[in-house]
Fold this sequence. Notes:
alpha+beta
Amino acid sequence: MVDVVGVRFKQAGKVYYFSPGNLALAKGDKVIVETARGVEFGELVIPLRQVDEKDLVLPLKQVIRQATAEDEQILENNRGKEKEAFQVCLKKIAEHRLPMKLVDVEYTFDGNKIIFSFTADGRVDFRDLVKDLASVFRTRIELRQIGVRDEAKMIGGVGSCGRILCCASFLGDFEPVSIRMAKDQKLSLNPTKISGICGRLMCCLKYENEGYSSGCGAACATGRVAGKQPADDWLEIEKEVFDLENKLLAMNTRAEVKEKAEVKVKPEVKINQIARAVSPAKGKGVPGRRGEKPKGKSEKE
């Protein structure tokens, strides 16, 4: 067993194991570590623990020291430089007329390298672009082509559920998602309903897939798992809800019937009253008075 700590360099980024050495570190501490691409600033998210050597890639890199206020100021300065580098790279891409979309720019902590992440439909020959950027920034330049899922993770956004994207908030790494997962969960296969803003299948299809693939299947929708009946208390709650729904439905039905009856009866009564007042009387007499003779005239006339 080996003593390790877990360090993350970006929000919702992948966690990497490092050797703590003789340092006393706690969760949430900011640390300076040595990585394959140089010295980096990270946050300790997994406190000291022991992990089997089989699960590690040895030898482990070392945690150099805890970060100081000066280190945090350097990190802030790098964030400002990244915004300037982003605008410069956009201009250079337009000058070279390259079919690529710039997504993110990242400075390493020690400033020895700048990483430009971009998306493109196919392969892009950016050798001339790298030369121009190197002449401007006087440091090592790396252009990295990423996929649409990585783009959504970097940019962030809000999903169809109304929450912040899983990949941008807590998912450290992407797991494979297939259309079979949606079929097993009996979800709509409409692409607009099972796809995320990246255009790929939503990562959340993976969350409940294990329950369905373990034999639950259609039973998950009915509450019957592995031949077992639902709990008695659940049946009682379901019955109470069912009775309440029936009562509300009956009340609404009676109200609708009463309202329709009033609408039908009242207009007919008013129409009949008006008709009697204005309709001419049958036979002789003044209109409106059936059987009454006119005054001032004899029967002979």
